[in-house]
Specification:
Layout: H1 15-26, H2 31-38, H3 42-59, E1 69-77, E2 94-101, E3 106-111, H4 116-126, E4 132-135, E5 152-154, H5 170-183, H6 191-206, H7 212-222
Protein name: Transposase-like protein
Organism: Hymenobacter caeli
Pfam families: DDE_Tnp_IS1595
């Protein structure tokens, strides 16, 4: 009788095989590649991957009263833009709003639009008014000073401004590049699982300097699947 799997309760998967599969997941291999290497079915690997991705909804902390230097930006995920559809809110895209604390972590939310009302509701709920807020020139950020964010600095990309002293949004833009590059391997992510993939990308980015396999083992030992 094989010993119980400490990381995946009520599973027929041995702990040795589970750890191997978790190592492949940490390396960001697709389910089909992991299935080929482990001898498991793609369906079984996909089911486990889905369970793991649901955990990132819990493991990514929701910030409150962020202070220091914060970068804000929005990005669009989905199919390539349709000809004739321009600007923020182009057809078929999922809009994601991101907050990046310099020297810290990124936090993302899927939003319905990039209006001033939508963005500033998140900003006022997540960021302390003492923070140094960095944005681009989008009109959704107009009026932040009027609601107490006296240290609001902007780089206007339309005027070829990208860095003005300490004012830039390079950190959050590096996350967008990271997330989009890793999502390309899936050749399209269904809308109903996009949030899971987004939060996985967020977790991977926030822990990019750590041994992800060892970190996942530690978290799953504390709270098994």
């Amino acid at each position: 009788m094989q010993p119980a799997n400490r990381y995946y309760k009520c599973s027929k998967l041995s702990e040795v095989k589970f750890r191997y599969l978790l190592r492949l997941f940490a390396l960001d291999l697709t389910a089909s590649d992991a299935a080929r290497l482990t001898g498991l079915s793609t369906r079984a690997v996909n089911a486990l991957y889905l369970r793991l991705r649901h955990r990132f909804l819990v493991w990514n902390p929701v910030p409150a009263e962020l202070a220091g230097a914060i970068e804000l930006d929005e990005s669009y995920f989905g199919p390539r833009r349709v000809r004739g559809k321009r600007g923020r809110g182009a057809s078929g895209k999922t809009i994601v709003f991101g907050l990046f604390k310099r020297g810290g972590q990124v936090y993302t939310e899927i939003v319905p639009d990039c209006s001033k009302k939508t963005l500033q509701a998140i900003i006022r709920g997540k960021i302390n008014v003492s923070a140094m807020v960095n944005t681009d020139g989008w009109r959704g950020y107009d009026g932040l000073v009027d609601v107490g964010f006296d240290r609001h600095f902007r780089v206007r990309h339309g005027r070829d401004e990208f860095v003005q002293g300490a004012s830039h949004i390079n950190g959050i833009e590096s996350f967008w590049s990271f997330a989009k590059a890793r999502l390309q391997q899936f050749k399209g992510v269904p809308k109903h699982t996009f949030l899971l993939h987004l939060k996985e990308s967020e977790f991977r980015f926030n822990h990019r300097y750590e041994n992800l396999y060892k970190l996942l083992l530690k978290l799953l030992r504390q709270q098994p699947l």
